[in-house]
Design goal:
The structure is a single chain. About 10% of the residues have low confidence. Among the domains are: about 100 residues, Phosphorylase Kinase, domain 1; about 180 residues, Transferase(Phosphotransferase) domain 1 (Transferase(Phosphotransferase), domain 1); about 80 residues, no CATH class; about 140 residues, no CATH class; about 400 residues, 7 Propeller (Methylamine Dehydrogenase, Chain H), CATH 2.130.10.10. Helices cover about 40% and strands about 15% of the residues. The strands form eleven sheets. The protein has a six-stranded mixed β-sheet, with no helix packed on it. It has a five-stranded antiparallel β-sheet with strand order 1-2-3-6-5, with helices on one face. The longest helix has about 35 residues. InterPro entries: 2AA_helical, ARM-like, ARM-type_fold, Kinase-like_dom_sf, Prot_kinase_dom, Ser/Thr_kinase_AS, Vps15-like, WD40/YVTN_repeat-like_dom_sf.
Length: about 1400
């Protein structure tokens, strides 16, 4: 075929994509280059990318069918060859012949010059596979014909594929005409030649061959037997490729050199001498022999050069193992990593052991590099987190067995790549693996001197700000190791630079290796980069990150930074960890780490350590105290504390010898033993033993023996006593009383029992009885007094600082830090006020107008005009009088009061003055400002206070008109005062309006108690009534029901003379069951929420009994859920309907915008929201959930402030706010009819109403009844009263001030006709006041509803079903009525 093409010239040239139009399943992607022989393109196929070679047909007489069949035969023969890639498809048309094969990105020629550069083992592995590929082809009688580095494909994991079998190219080429060579073989234009010498023939031979075959060449090309390829030709070409591989891309021949080699005038030894491996050199020389008969077959080369050029492991393990990954089916990357992870132990054992037999050195264990290439080729295409974690583990395993330069070149970049992986677990594991891998490196090439500051640390820069805590924890865990390794790298490079500096002094320096800077500059740069990350981690929002950094290498960081920065950076940040009162783990970690830091900083830190240790010794968590004692022991052993400090600390910790905690006693004994061991005998007997006397049973000498000291200690204070005292709020009074009791015991004669006086405080007496019942004895009282200071500090540390009122300055404590005592300053020197009151003082309206002119007159007479510069004139006015004679001519112009007061007016009594718009009164006369104006005058001027007429009007008439000087700054100040006053009035007005709208003003009198008289029974609803709401004016109330209706009832008609038992209006256009409703916009509208997610806001028409829909919204049931509770508040600028949804959303819906004003999300772990209440001042909101959680939200910052949980995690039924205590909430929960009052600031349960036969505050025995509706009756003088009703169908009245006045107002229909008497008693249980409802065993009274059921009345007095809600409305100023609703749709009105 080739003998007939060189002279054919194409008539028309088309691009390569033109020929792909006939092949529909291949889509053109890009051109890969074209020659006169072939046009090559890359195409997209359904199975991946493919290479398409196009031979344009310009001569139809060519016998292409023979060559097509030949290619099909080669494909079939090589189907089982793992290292051969024949053309997989060929098509023949009138326009062109197309050849198809798989696309491989890199060939050997490109791979030689691509990073990471191939090392010796990889080159041998490629040469070995190339010989295997030749052997596989020759064994099936296939010769390639055009072996060159461009036709040897290398995958990403160094698997070799021999491709582009050229059976259609000419076998013999003329030696005197390079045209055929250029046309068929020099596709790269490099002029390199890989063709065997015997394929070049002289021109006479070529001519005779052409003449003999001219008659048959076009008809039967198969008859040219003389032109067949031989295996020796491929062997020579393979030798050229191997030589190029081992000489870094230098081919041994070009065309002219090969022709000269044929003639014996050229030798390739110059190129072959560059091959360092002698076995490889001998192999290539043998393959490049000119005589074909002397060349061996590929199989023989593989056998003879086994263990010489190619390691034995290539034959026994790698070829078979890696061949499984090259076979079909092609495995995905995740599956490859899973198999490698499973077999990695065997791989390392096989490859490492074979190399160790040769040399036993780690640097020769390079067989794993071939497996490493397979691993790294899969990393960027991994999809699953588990596969990426396994890949990191494999990389770390391989890193232990390969040289350092390969770790830095092959493994580190891939680990850094995983630092930015989307999976947080992978990022965290990549940090750990990276730090462990870098510690393995023991030598750093000069080219990688700056790998940390220029590559590793910049890629880790974003980790301290990572969104996932797990990643930041991993970085904190390993940053000390990274810093230590970076310093070690820097020192290794500096040492290498110093050792080679002299050797390179006389030689020419390598321009590719440049040492960047001095050691000090590099170290300072490294310190700066690490310091920035460490400070960020030490300031992290999550304590676990700080704790991890402390527990993992804080001492290493001290060594890295040096003494000065360890003190300035690390210690200064560590100290702040003790301020975290919520995380005792962090405080404990501080004391674990402080010893190492202090040991490195030195004795200079002793003055800092003392207060830190003291704070740890009085920590609220006993575990932290143990840690502090352990740290103190180590500091004393290291000699970091001086003797005076040790003695002070010893006197503080000795009382811990009677502490109930065994660990604390042992830790204290350890400290004392170490002190005794470090002190001399005199110090021990004079200073230490006297401190121990109150705590030991008998004298001891060997104080430095810890077991002996522990053996002679007195019994500790009982744990219940100790804990109960710490929880008590009367701890100070208790210790005072214990001090008095101890004094009485000391004064009492031996053998006599002292008589103790009863404490005045009932609470203290009860506390003493409680302690004595828990086992407190008189010796325990003495021990408690010894522990007084420690317990007081612990109790103070446990208590919230906000709970204690701040100290107020007074005569006893005039100087308190942070507080300015105005009273004390007033006595020393009068304080002059330089501000104006926001509220006008009444004295300014009378006295100021009289005194001000006289003072000014006296001052102005003594002041002479002075020269003033321009700046002073613009600020304080001019010295010349300003004429304002035109001012009285504008009586109708509006004048600001401050401007009016400061204006210049005619002082004559008969001169007309300007009148104001309000009433036409005369404006005040002006004030002369030649002298300074007092603040009282300024206020008078700002208020517009009229001046009184002078006492001598005749003299005033004779005087010329008074002209006033007005300073610019004073005029501006007067305007500012007036502006602030107007703003203050507006704020007060707005606040008043909000309070009037939010706080219910119509409340029954505190002495009112319902009598239980049923006055109305309303049964219009057809299903359960879910909620009742009263209007602000108590003119009507509204009910919502599961029947889908909202009804409005007129209170005057229900209780008036008309006695109409019908609702005023009904709204039934909202689908679903109406679960909640509220009045909004001054009771003119009703907002109702349904379980289908809709919320309707309807306006109540004043005249006609109908509703008009104002607003409507539909919630997303799947995302938000329907509203479970709803309320309304008005901020002045916003009318906000607030609702809570099933999915935990708290949403503020502004009816005036309209739109969502704010949206909050309660944590789902707390349970479903069941009820909420909003503070009247719109500052905070309380939310109750189904799991007993009560969460307080700050509506200003929209953040949760605190969360408290019910001890039994009971379902919260209803929440309201306490009228007297701003931070208290009233919560009704499921079980025992419990209603509790909680302090959201302290989390304490202050008061509880308990109507259950179960023991009060019992957490195990509960009844199923719960309060569903409650109403609080506030009282200014006493505690409020309550009305409650719920599942037991009873209406109760609770008096917190006088529990005996409490009672059941209305019983249930299901109650027996005769019931025992009910009594209510107050009890104190665990610090909580409880009013308990109890039933007498003997009959004491009839049922409340008994008299109502006597007679012929058909309507029952009590409810038959669960009471769902209740409301109270005023009938008259002195009486009120109660409305209750139930699940059977009944509404009852009671008096």
């Amino acid at each position: 075929m080739g003998n007939q093409l060189t002279g054919i010239a194409p008539s028309q040239i088309f691009p390569v994509e033109h020929y792909l139009t006939d092949v529909t399943d291949y889509e053109f992607d890009t051109s890969l280059g074209s020659t006169r022989f072939f046009k090559v393109a890359r195409a997209k196929y359904k199975e991946g990318l493919a290479v398409v070679k196009v031979f344009a047909i310009h001569d139809p007489s060519l016998p292409l069918k023979y060559y097509k069949d030949k290619l099909e035969e080669i494909k079939n023969r090589l189907s089982s060859s793992s290292n051969c890639l024949p053309f997989l498809r060929s098509t023949l048309s009138d326009k062109a012949a197309l050849l198809f094969r798989q696309y491989i990105r890199n060939n050997l020629y490109d791979r030689i010059s691509t990073r990471p550069f191939l090392n010796t083992v990889e080159k041998k592995w490629i040469a070995f596979q190339l010989l295997c590929a030749i052997n596989q082809a020759h064994r099936v009688k296939v010769c390639h014909g055009d072996i060159k580095s461009e036709n040897v494909m290398v995958t990403g994991w160094n698997w070799v594929l021999l491709t582009d079998f050229a059976s259609f190219k000419p076998t013999f080429l003329p030696a005197d005409n390079p045209a055929d060579f250029s046309f068929f073989f020099d596709t790269s234009r490099r002029r390199t030649c890989y063709i065997a010498p015997e394929r070049f023939i002289e021109g006479s031979m070529r001519q005779s061959e052409t003449v003999e075959s001219s008659d048959t060449s076009l008809l039967d090309a198969g008859s040219l037997k003389r032109g067949e390829l031989t295996p020796q030709m491929d062997i020579f070409s393979t030798g050229c490729v191997i030589a190029e591989l081992f000489t870094e891309g230098h081919a041994p021949f070009d065309l002219s050199q090969l022709l000269a080699y044929c003639n014996g005038t050229y030798s390739p030894d110059t190129v072959l001498n560059k091959i360092e491996d002698p076995s490889i050199k001998a192999l290539v020389e043998h393959m490049l022999q000119k005589d074909p008969s002397k060349r061996l077959s590929a199989e023989e080369y593989l056998k003879q050069w086994k263990t010489k050029a190619f390691p034995d492991v290539f034959y026994s393990y790698l070829k078979v193992f890696l061949g499984d990954f090259a076979g079909i089916p092609i495995l995905p990357s995740d599956e490859k990593i899973a198999r490698l992870k499973r077999d990695m132990g065997k791989i390392i054992e096989t490859l490492s052991s074979s190399d160790e037999k040769q040399d036993g050195c780690k640097d020769n264990n390079n067989g794993l590099i071939i497996v490493l290439s397979l691993v790294t080729s899969c990393l960027r295409t991994l999809k699953f987190c588990i596969s990426k974690l396994a890949a990191l583990e494999i990389l770390l395993m391989i890193a232990h067995h390969i040289p350092d330069d390969l770790i830095l070149d092959r493994i580190i970049p891939h680990m850094v790549h995983f630092i930015s992986d989307p999976f947080p677990r992978v990022r965290a594991e990549a940090i750990r693996t990276l730090s462990q891998t870098l510690t393995i490196v023991n030598s750093v090439p000069r080219s990688d001197a700056n790998i940390f500051p220029e590559y590793i640390l910049p890629n880790l820069a974003n980790l301290p700000q990572d969104d996932i805590v797990l990643v930041r924890v991993a970085y904190a865990e390993n940053i000390a190791v990274l810093a230590e390794t970076a310093l070690r790298f820097l020192e290794m490079v500096q040492l290498d630079h110093t050792s080679t500096q002299d050797a390179q002094a006389d030689s020419v320096p390598d321009p590719n290796v440049q040492y960047q800077a001095s050691y000090d500059d590099e170290l300072q740069n490294l310190h700066g980069m690490i310091q920035q990350k460490v400070v960020t981690l030490l300031s992290d929002t999550e304590n676990i990150v700080k704790q991890t950094l402390l527990e993992n290498g804080i001492t290493r960081l001290c060594v890295f930074f040096g003494r000065q920065k360890a003190n300035d950076v690390l210690l200064s940040h560590m100290i702040t960890f003790l301020n975290d009162k919520n995380d005792w783990h962090l405080r404990g970690s501080f004391f674990d780490s402080i010893v190492g830091v202090a040991a490195y900083v030195g004795w200079q830190s002793s003055f800092i350590l003392k207060p830190l240790i003291q704070q740890g010794l009085c920590d609220s968590e006993e575990f932290v105290i143990c840690k502090a004692l352990t740290a103190l022991t180590s500091l004393i052993e290291l000699g970091l504390l001086q003797k005076p400090i040790i003695l002070d600390l010893a006197s503080e910790i000795v009382p811990n010898l009677c502490h109930p905690n065994l660990w604390i006693r042992q830790g204290t004994a350890g400290v004392i033993a170490v002190i005794a061991g470090n002190f001399n005998i005199a110090d021990v007997h004079c200073n230490l033993i006297p401190l121990l006397q109150p705590f030991i049973k008998q004298p001891i000498i060997q104080v430095d023996k810890e077991p002996i000291l522990l053996n002679v200690l007195k019994p500790p204070v009982p744990r219940p006593v100790y804990d109960y005292i710490l929880r008590s709020s009367l701890i100070e009074s208790l210790f005072d009383n214990l001090q008095d009791r101890q004094l009485l015991r000391n004064l009492c004669r031996p053998g006599h029992k002292p008589s103790y006086s009863q404490p005045d405080s009932p609470g203290l007496a009860q506390l003493l009885r409680k302690l004595q019942s828990q086992g407190m004895t008189e010796p325990d009282e003495d021990k408690l007094l010894l522990l007084k200071d420690i317990m007081m500090k612990q109790q103070q540390a446990k208590s919230n600082p906000n709970d204690q009122p701040p100290p107020s300055p007074g005569p006893d404590n005039p100087n308190i830090p942070g507080i300015i005592n105005i009273l004390a300053l007033e006595k020393e020197s009068p304080v002059q006020k330089y501000h104006a009151d926001l509220i006008k003082p009444p004295e300014l309206r009378s006295d100021a107008s009289e005194k001000a002119p006289r003072k000014l007159k006296k001052r102005s007479s003594n002041i002479e005009p002075a020269m003033m510069n321009e700046e002073w004139k613009s600020m304080f006015g001019t010295s010349e009088p300003a004429r304002t004679s035109k001012a009285p001519q504008q009586p109708t112009s509006p004048v600001h009061p401050a401007q009016d007061a400061m204006a210049t007016l005619n002082a004559g009594p008969k001169s007309p003055g300007p009148t104001s718009q309000q009433g036409g009164k005369s404006q005040p006369t002006g004030l002369s400002t030649l002298g300074p104006i007092s603040m009282s005058q300024l206020q008078a001027a700002a208020d517009g206070i009229p001046e009184k007429k002078p006492l001598a009007p005749v003299q005033e008439n004779r005087l010329p008109p008074i002209q006033t000087l007005v300073a610019t700054c004073k005029l501006e100040l007067s305007r500012l005062v007036q502006q602030k006053r107007e703003q203050y009035v507006a704020d007060v007005t707005r606040k008043t309006l909000i309070e009037e709208a939010a706080i219910e003003t119509k409340i029954p009198p505190s002495s009112w108690k319902p009598k239980g008289l049923l006055v109305a029974h309303l049964h219009e609803h057809k299903a359960a009534v879910n909620r009742i709401q009263l209007s602000h004016d108590h003119m009507f109330f509204a009910t919502c029901s599961s029947d889908g209706t909202v009804k409005v009832w007129d209170t005057s008609r229900l209780l008036g003379k008309s006695n109409t038992n019908r609702s005023r209006q009904t709204y039934n256009r909202q689908p679903g069951r109406i679960k909640a409703l509220t009045f909004c916009q001054s009771s003119h509208s009703i907002a109702s929420a349904s379980d289908d997610g809709s919320i309707h806001v309807n306006r109540i028409e004043a005249g006609a009994p109908r509703f008009s829909l104002l607003h409507k919204t539909n919630l997303d049931i799947h995302e938000e859920g329907f509203a479970v509770d709803i309320t309304h508040f008005d901020t002045g600028s916003q009318s906000v309907v607030t609702y809570a949804t099933v999915q935990g959303y708290l949403v503020g819906w502004d009816l005036r915008a309209p739109g969502i004003a704010w949206r909050l999300r309660n944590q789902s772990k707390h349970g479903l929201i069941t009820s909420f209440a909003v503070d009247p001042h719109q500052c905070w909101m309380a939310v109750g959930t189904s799991k007993g959680a009560h969460t307080c939200w700050d509506l200003r910052f929209q953040l949760p402030i605190s969360t408290l949980h019910h001890p039994t995690a009971s379902h919260v039924r209803r929440i309201s706010l306490h009228p007297n205590h701003p931070s208290w909430i009233i919560s009704a929960v499921q079980g025992n009819n419990e209603v509790s009052m909680w302090d959201m600031e302290t989390g304490a349960r202050q008061f509880t109403l308990w109507a259950s036969p179960s023991p009060p505050l019992s957490q195990t025995q509960t009844s199923n009844h719960a309060v569903h509706g409650m109403y609080c009756i506030p009282s200014n003088e006493h505690s409020p009263s309550f009305l409650t009703a719920g599942s037991d169908q009873r209406l109760r009245y609770w008096s917190l001030t006088n529990p005996e006045h409490s009672g059941i107002i209305a019983g249930s229909v299901n109650d027996p006709p005769i019931q025992p008497a009910v009594t209510y008693k107050r009890r104190l249980i665990d610090g909580t006041e409880v009013i308990v409802e109890t039933y007498d065993k003997h009959r004491g009274a009839t049922n409340v509803g008994e008299s109502g059921r006597q007679g012929t009345e058909q309507v029952p007095v009590g409810h038959r079903n669960v009471i769902t809600d209740l409301g109270v409305f005023l009938i008259s100023p002195s009486s009120a009525a109660v409305a209750t609703t139930s699940q059977d749709g009944v509404v009852k009105i009671w008096k």
